[in-house]
Structure formats: C-alpha cells, structure tokens
Amino acid sequence: MSIDVVEPKTISQFEDEQGIYQPAPHIVEQANITAYMRSKGFSTWEELYQWSIEHPHLFWADMANRLEWYEPWEKVLDDSNKPFYKWFVGGKFNIVHNAIDRHLKTARRNKQALIWEGEDGSYRAFSYFGINREVSKFANVLKSMGVQPGDIVSIYMPRIPELVFAMLACAKIGAAHSVIYGGFSVEALRERIADAQSKVLITADGGYMRGKIVELKKIADEAMGHSPSIQTCIVVRRTGHNVEMQAGRDYWWHDLMSLPIATARCETVPVDAEHPLYILYTSGSTGKPKGVVHVHGGYAVYIASTLYFTFDIKEEDRYWCAADPGWVTGHSYIVYGPLIEGATSFMYEGAPNYPYPNRWWSLVEKYGINILYTAPTAIRGLMRFGDAWPNRHDLSSLRLLGSVGEPINPEAWRWFYNVIGKGRCPIMDTWWQTETGGFMITPNPTTPLKPGSATRPFLGIQADVVDEQGHSKGANEDGLLVIKSPWPGMMRTILRDPDRYVNQYWNSDPRGMYTAGDSARKDEDGYFWIIGRIDDVIKVSGYRLGTAEIESALVSHPAVSEAAAIGLPHEVKGTAIHCFVILRAGIEETPALEDELKAHVAREMGPIARPESIKFVSMLPKTRSGKIMRRVLKAQALGQDPGDLSTLEG
Ligand code: WTA
C-alpha cells in the first residue's frame, strides 16, 4: 500500500526560519499554564520549570491541592525505600470522589460528563449526575457479588459507556480493576485473569468493529474455561446476538442493575493515597506481560495536572481522546483525567474509517470537539485517503491536537497540523508510558513546536539522555532515555513481582534512575527526540506488544519448533511484526501453513498481533547462551550491518 503524501502548501506561513512553530499570542495569553506561571510570580515557562524541579514538594503540593482529600497528607514524598516511592503519605482519598462526587456539589452536576457514539450511530450521553447514578448502582452490584477492597476485577469490554462505569465502580469501593483490551484474545485474557486472580469478570456479548461483531463473550467463555478463579461473569448486552450464559456464573448487567440491591446510593470508600487503583498489563522485554500497579492519590494528582496544563482543559471544552480505554491512554485521559477536571469526554466505539474515511471528521463536526488526541498510526491511516474527506467538514471547533504512542513523522505532523488543525491548533506530542501514568515529555500550548519532537519534560520532571554508565550524552547524541527523579504518577510496582520492578526499571543505572526502555536524543535547545524502543517491545499501530508473547503464541502451534519475532518499519502502522519460524521435522513449508500460522497468532493473542510476514528458516542467530539475537535478524532484513557478532553461537 502506498501513501499519498500530502504536501502542505501553506506551511511557510506558520513556520519560522528555523522550522519552529511559534505559539500564537492569544493561545499563550489564555493558557492555563500562563495563569499558573503568573500566579507563582514567574515571567517565563523556563523559570517556572526550574522552580518546579528545584522544589518538587512545593509544586506537587500545589497540584494535590487542586483536588479534594478526605484527610490531608502528612508528607508529599516518602523516598526512604527507593525505588518504592510513596506519595502524599497519610492522605485519605478516592479518585472517584474527585472524578464524580465533588462535581455533584456544583453546577457541573448537570454538565455532560460522557458523550458516546456507537459505530452503528447509536448515541448516549451522561451528565455528572447521570454517571454517578450508573456508577453507584453498579458499585452496589459488585458489593453484592462479594467484591471487597483490594480485590482485582477483570474487565474485558468493547468501547461502550459501561466500561467506564465498571472501572469507576471498582475504584469507588476500593477494588482494583484490570482492564484487558477488547482486541486481545483467549490466551492473553486467560493469562491476565490468572495473574490477577480475579473472581469477577465483566464483559459484553460483543462489540462492533468495522460493521462486524467481535465475539467477546465467546472469547471470554473460552478463557474462563481455563480460569479457575472466576466465580461470576457480568455481561453487558451490546449487540444482542445469541451468546451462551452459564447458569450460576453468568449474569446480564441489565438484570442486575434492575434488582432492588442496585440502588443509586453508595458511599465512596475513603482509601489510603497509596491504595491500588488498577493493574494494567503491559509487554516488557522478556517473558509474561507485567501487571503495572497504579494507586489512587499520586496518580490522580499527576494525570489531572498533566491534562490541565497540556491540553489546557477549559470548562466549555469537548475533549476527545480517541484511544481505547483498555490501554493506559484511555485510563488516564478518557476516563479519570477528564472527569477529575470536570470536562466533557467524548468516546467513539468503532473504526476511524467506518463506513467512510470521514467518520472521525464528521464526529468532530457533529459534537463540536475542541481537543482531539490520537496516535500517529491513525493520522497516517486517515491521511492516505486524501484531504477531500476532512475538507468536507467544518473542523473549526478544534483548538488543540495531540499525538501519542510512537514517534510522529514530520509528514504526518504537518498534515495533522495543516489539514485538520488548519494551521490554528498546536499539536501536543506527548511521550509517556503505561508505567509513567501520564505525560512525561510534552509541549504545552505555549511551547514553540518542532515537528517530530515531544519537546521538553513536564513541570517537576527531570528527563535526560545518558550512556550505559548513566553519564549525560552531549547534544544530538543517541542514548538511553531516563527520568532522574520520582513523580506522583509513577507505577508503584509490578503485581506479585517487586524484584522485576526493581531490576527492569532501576537497576541498569547505578544511580537509580528510571530507565524508560526508549532511546532518544536531546538537541541543543533541550528538545527531546524519541527514537524508539531498545528492548524487545514492538509498537504496532501504537499498541504495545512483546516479541516473547508473539513467539510463545507461534510455538504453541504443533507445526512450530522455534520462532523469533521482530518489528520492521511500516508506512501506516509505524512498525509491523515479522516472524521467523523453524518447523518441526517433517513438516512442509507451504503458503497455506504460513497463513495458518498468522491466523493462529491472531486467534491466540488478538488481531493486532497478526504477523505481517512469516519466513521459514532452518536456523536462528543465537548467543552462546541460547538467546535469540533479534537485532541480527532485523539488520539482515533491513540490509544493514548487524554490528558486533562476537557473542553469536559458532
Ligand atoms: C512509545 C503509551 C514517541 C515509547 C502512552 C514508549 C512514544 C511506549 C510516544 C510506551 C511519543 C509513547 N513519541 N514514542 N509521543 N508516546 N511512545 O506503555 O516507545 O503503550 O516507551 O504507553 O510508546 O507505550 P505504552
């Protein structure tokens, strides 16, 4: 597939001589960050940033004071047991009190909290009052099912409002949720349920994607068949197609919500600031996906302040983060962040180009979206349909744009800026990770922008590019991206594996910096340019997958003896998965088997993991200790020099 690169015709009118996009004065004047900067007595962002990293306790206390606490914290940061940092120690809090309850005392009670459109055109909207009713009722249902504070409830749902209610209901009663992306399949779901030891699974009969039904309940049934911990499954009716309901285990959401027990009164449980809010599984460099743990207090402070300053949320805004709630972007910036800020969050169920490539632009026009936050892969995917589709729509409501998930190539940046934002809307290229909870390196509306750079660290964040020994690299030199001091939104540990948390993120550097797993460089202006993952994580269309998971899906097929997966550049997806497979003795290498193996991976893990190509080989490059050298495979595929081969098996 080739991309029609749209050459922006008017670019020079927005760019200065150095190729930098200077912010418009009226945007700077009205920005939340400008108001905060002035309130602290500073006249430039630079001074504000310096103060924030020199006095992080003062800055984060300011941010925490934007929220409501049942009982105030005694200490902003406890770093007595590094890297197990604790934030807002002694504080009593609940994120749901801040996302919902406190708004009910104000005029926001009647403001739209969530607007939703299904792929089939259905429409639902909930005010803060309305969302509180749904969440409270469902929280009572969960309690009646025996869900206790500290339990982990697994959620496997399409992009529908009940997914949001389920997450909030868990948090309200002090239970943690583990949302498993609805595009994942049986094995991925089973593994995550098992690690979380969930007693309750919340799912739906199905969801819509490109006009077809995704059989979520069927996949859940298969996974539950091998999940002894599950006692109860709650099923939302979304598609209405026939699904099996196992008596005594499976219940319809709407049946439970009409029981007398499901009253709309439910006290939000005050929990410790460090109480777990959710587990989110993400791929790491080796082995099983890891359960990243986030907590109520510091996480809430972090995502609310990053959203407030970066996307400059204003009372009248309609904000659309087009990610899936099943990934961290959705957790932080569809569900919790916007609700804490009292914003109106828009959510769309389906594919961006269904039934036509103007679907997204028609949604922007129809709902008057002011802020649109998405991923480079979606931008590239829509760009290739040409300008006529967006040009047919009134996109003048847009004020700010955002990008996340992978480096955005300058062509896609400029298309987004010129064709969608009409040269009026700054693009917030936000670099962050599941582990960081929220934006780490990001512009704000007052930042001069360079297409393809995530610009500078957020307030209170000290980022750097270093060598293997932890020494800072010079300007424009490639190195490891590290964070040099803790921040409130950071992950607290890996569920059931604290050693892995220490080893994976903190031990590679003697000074105990947080190692992100990305390579980057910093230019002479201190702008960060993210290059990509240095470990065995592949970002396919912005989705994070581990080579180890793909390989283990392949070797679970009876024809496969050994497998290796690598990521290679792809013009729309950013990176695509390519696999190398050694077949078992006597098995014939056929195109049919290649297709069968691709389908097998998609079935086991989910359609996003479907390999682009499978190559049959007779051997794989390995180290003497037997580790597959994926970098050698990658260099060969790209026709590059494979580098040092001294550890290669002879
Ligand atoms: C990549 C997604 C370049 C990076 C929020 C990171 C980015 C990984 C950007 C985390 C960006 C995310 N520019 N690369 N703006 N944002 N990444 O955990 O490789 O799904 O380490 O979190 O995505 O992916 P995750």
From TrEMBL:
Record's superkingdom? Bacteria
All copies of domain Acetyl-coenzyme A synthetase N-terminal, residue ranges: 46-99
The Gene Ontology biological process annotation of the record reads:
acetyl-CoA biosynthetic process from acetate
CDD domains found in the cross-reference section: ACS
ATP-binding as UniProt keyword: yes
Give the top-level enzyme category: ligase
| Residues covered by the AMP-binding enzyme C-terminal domain | 549-627
Named from the GO MF annotations, one term is: acetate-CoA ligase activity
Q: Which InterPro entries match?
A: Ac_CoA_lig, ACAS_N, AMP-bd_C, AMP-bd_C_sf, AMP-binding_CS, AMP-dep_synth/lig_dom, ANL_N_sf
The UniProt keywords, alphabetically, are: Acetylation, ATP-binding, Ligase, Nucleotide-binding
- AMP-dependent synthetase/ligase domain segment(s): 108-493
Q: What is its EC number?
A: 6.2.1.1
Gene Ontology CC annotation, any one: cytosol
Tell me the SUPFAM superfamilies matching this sequence: Acetyl-CoA synthetase-like
Similarity field: Belongs to the ATP-dependent AMP-binding enzyme family.
Q: What is this protein called?
A: Acetate--CoA ligase
Specify the species.
Roseiflexus castenholzii (strain DSM 13941 / HLO8)
